[in-house]
């Protein structure tokens, strides 16, 4: 899932972006309200996090602009201003939730999960795997890359799901045979290599960032770094 963080404090940006990336989100960052407005209106985000005290356009005004154009995108506001008046102002300008600094990342993540469930219905975070711009919906068994549908065969999907659930872990050919084909011995064929190649052609073709990598002599790994 794609999130936009509009925040001008580098330390806050670092903590939030690192935490969200570790949770599988793709995070775009805007250091001021003007850039935040441009990114929010020109791109599709699943959720937007706004600080109130922003240079250029303050968070309250920016929230109002975003909600007027994209009412179905949830917005969480962050601020050090924790008075009732500021909370009410944020909600009156369209914010879906409000978090007062300082806060723990776990609290922010819980709010994000709640809002995404509310807006996305049955497609909860637990049913979706995001790796860079690759999105796998485990419930619908659908795949998207850069918001474009990717059509896979049943076997290709099982292979991708297995690799995604083991993101950044090197998987041997035997591991893959056991988990995807339910075979606990080496067939003496290159069926794994063939299907990984099929996936590469569909997942990584024309993409700037390659996600499927070969670990020479060891196996394969799906990773975004």
TrEMBL record:
<keyword id="KW-0804">Transcription</keyword>
<feature type="domain" description="OmpR/PhoB-type">
    <location>
        <begin position="126"/>
        <end position="224"/>
    </location>
</feature>
<keyword id="KW-0805">Transcription regulation</keyword>
<dbReference type="GO" id="GO:0000156">
    <property type="term" value="F:phosphorelay response regulator activity"/>
</dbReference>
<dbReference type="GO" id="GO:0006355">
    <property type="term" value="P:regulation of DNA-templated transcription"/>
</dbReference>
<feature type="domain" description="Response regulatory">
    <location>
        <begin position="2"/>
        <end position="116"/>
    </location>
</feature>
<dbReference type="GO" id="GO:0032993">
    <property type="term" value="C:protein-DNA complex"/>
</dbReference>
<dbReference type="InterPro" id="IPR039420">
    <property type="entry name" value="WalR-like"/>
</dbReference>
<protein>
    <submittedName>
        <fullName>DNA-binding response regulator</fullName>
    </submittedName>
</protein>
<dbReference type="InterPro" id="IPR011006">
    <property type="entry name" value="CheY-like_superfamily"/>
</dbReference>
<keyword id="KW-0238">DNA-binding</keyword>
<keyword id="KW-0902">Two-component regulatory system</keyword>
<dbReference type="Pfam" id="PF00486">
    <property type="entry name" value="Trans_reg_C"/>
</dbReference>
<dbReference type="InterPro" id="IPR036388">
    <property type="entry name" value="WH-like_DNA-bd_sf"/>
</dbReference>
<dbReference type="GO" id="GO:0005829">
    <property type="term" value="C:cytosol"/>
</dbReference>
<dbReference type="Pfam" id="PF00072">
    <property type="entry name" value="Response_reg"/>
</dbReference>
<dbReference type="InterPro" id="IPR001789">
    <property type="entry name" value="Sig_transdc_resp-reg_receiver"/>
</dbReference>
<feature type="modified residue" description="4-aspartylphosphate">
    <location>
        <position position="51"/>
    </location>
</feature>
<keyword id="KW-0597">Phosphoprotein</keyword>
<dbReference type="InterPro" id="IPR001867">
    <property type="entry name" value="OmpR/PhoB-type_DNA-bd"/>
</dbReference>
<dbReference type="GO" id="GO:0000976">
    <property type="term" value="F:transcription cis-regulatory region binding"/>
</dbReference>
<feature type="DNA-binding region" description="OmpR/PhoB-type">
    <location>
        <begin position="126"/>
        <end position="224"/>
    </location>
</feature>
């Amino acid at each position: 899932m794609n999130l936009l963080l509009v925040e001008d404090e580098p330390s806050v940006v670092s903590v939030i972006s690192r935490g969200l990336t570790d949770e599988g989100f793709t995070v775009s960052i805007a250091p001021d309200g003007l850039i935040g407005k441009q990114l929010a209106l020109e791109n599709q985000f699943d959720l937007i996090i706004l600080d109130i005290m922003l240079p250029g356009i303050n968070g309250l005004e920016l929230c109002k602009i975003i909600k007027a154009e994209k009412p179905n995108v949830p917005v969480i506001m962050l601020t050090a201003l924790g008075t009732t008046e500021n909370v009410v102002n944020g909600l009156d300008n369209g914010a879906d939730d409000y978090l007062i600094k300082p806060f723990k990342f776990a609290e922010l993540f819980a709010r994000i999960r709640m809002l995404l469930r509310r807006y996305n219905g049955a497609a909860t975070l637990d049913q979706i795997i995001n790796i860079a711009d690759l999105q796998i919906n485990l419930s619908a068994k659908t795949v998207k890359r850069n918001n474009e549908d990717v059509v896979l065969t049943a076997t290709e999907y099982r292979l991708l799901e297995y690799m995604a659930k083991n993101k950044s872990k090197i998987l041997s050919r035997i591991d893959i045979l056991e988990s995807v084909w339910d075979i606990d011995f080496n067939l003496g064929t290159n069926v794994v290599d063939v299907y990984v190649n099929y996936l590469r052609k569909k997942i990584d073709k024309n993409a700037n960032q390659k996600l499927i990598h070969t670990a020479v002599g060891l196996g394969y790994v799906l990773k975004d770094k």
